[in-house]
Amino acid sequence: MTLLQVSAIETFYGPSQALFGVDLEVRKGEVVTLMGRNGMGKTTTIRSVCGMTQARAGRIVFSGREVVGLPSHRIARLGIGLVPEGRRCFPNLTVRENLVVSARPGRWTLDAVRELFPRLGERMAQYAGTLSGGEQQMLAIGRALITNPSLLILDEATEGLAPIIRDDIWAAIRRLKREGEAILVVDKTMDEVLDVADRCVVLERGRTVWAGVPAELTPDLQDRYLGV
Ligand code: ATP
């Protein structure tokens, strides 16, 4: 069952066009990775899906509803949990408060998040602003999960983190996948992302240029689309 269908979207920043035709599908229970070199439009695609930058052309259907034109809080309410680039928690709230203010009914509760990230569980009373970068990232993921979304979107969730914390985050992502969560992930750690993804979508200069399963993304194709 299709959860998210993005068709031929075009998105602009003022007069400057960033997306020229992005197509992307995420089905229920599937992990899809959006790939491409720097500046090819991955974050802009995510911003368009979440209504933070409105697509000017094309269609975005989420859970059977056209979402182009809806404000981002409405789209979030329909069931998209975004972990934006650069995390963003409330620094002056505790870990627990950050989670509680985002919570909506469902299987992802405070206890479930605590169990997924024991490190965070030990720091429930600590102010978010005093967490390490990796812990803040876990909190950002926890905050998205506790909204009980039907689609989780991770934009560079492991960027700039210590290897040991990265491993924890990848372990959490693999667990979410096993538990049937649908995830759209952008990440520069190619081997990890190809390992967890069911399908890949590659962007080049604001367009979808390739889509397929990780096994079909040969070294030649990786070189062509992702090499530096
Ligand atoms: P990266 O991996 O570097 O984050 P990306 O694939 O996510 O890259 P985007 O951030 O979506 O790429 O950028 C796509 C294009 O849109 C780029 O040409 C970029 O310069 C431009 N762009 C992104 N954000 C803005 C903005 N706020 N204002 C103007 N142009 C922007």
What does this protein structure show overall?
With 228 residues, this protein is of the alpha/beta class. Helix content is 34%, strand content 29%. α3 runs parallel beside α6. The mean pLDDT is 95.
Condensed summary:
The chain has 228 residues and is α/β, with parallel strands linked by helices. Helix 3 packs parallel to helix 6. The longest helix has 16 residues.
Give short descriptive properties of this protein.
228 residues; alpha/beta; Rossmann fold; six-stranded mixed sheet; four-stranded antiparallel sheet; 9 helices; 10 strands; 29% strand; binds adenosine-5'-triphosphate; ABC_transporter-like_CS; ABC transporter ATP-binding protein; ATP-binding; nucleotide-binding
Give Rg in angstroms.
Answer: 17 Å
Estimate the mean pLDDT confidence.
95
Tally of domains: 1
CATH hierarchy: architecture: 3-Layer(aba) Sandwich
Q: How are the strands of the biggest sheet laid out side by side?
A: 6-7-8-3-9-10
- Ligands, deduplicated: adenosine-5'-triphosphate
By CATH's scheme, which homologous superfamily applies? P-loop containing nucleotide triphosphate hydrolases
Low-confidence parts: none
